[in-house]
Design a protein that fits this description.
There is one protein chain. With about 130 residues, this protein is mainly α. Helix content is about 75%, strand content about 0%. It is built from five helices and no strands. The longest helix is centred in the middle third of the chain and has 25 residues. The termini are far apart.
Amino acid sequence: MTQRRLLQLIIAVLALVPIGAGLAGVLTGPAFLATTPPWSDDLDSHVRFLSGVFLVLGLAWWSCIPHIETKTERIRLLGAATFVGGLARLYSLILVGAPTAGHLVGLGLELVAVPLILLWHSRLSTEPRREA
């Protein structure tokens, strides 16, 4: 399998995480997080909104799969968004303690796997690098 195909496959599989979590959060609200009602209307609204964003983030990663070597700017933007989300999750871990295992896996993907994907993609990219 070529490096290009392997990267496409890894992105396809990893994007299932935000797509699945996003769909679950949109459809079930805070119940997706193993919380029990009652919860505030604001919490329900916020969870469903962020779940929609998470869903679109995963779909946007999928949109990079065809012609992946030409999607440098999009992949960098998605990587930055995902990484910053991971930093926010890390802040929560420091501030309030460790979340459930699923969220810790997400943290690892956001802060370790995504930067590695960005580095890997930069080696495959056919777009010329811009001078700073």
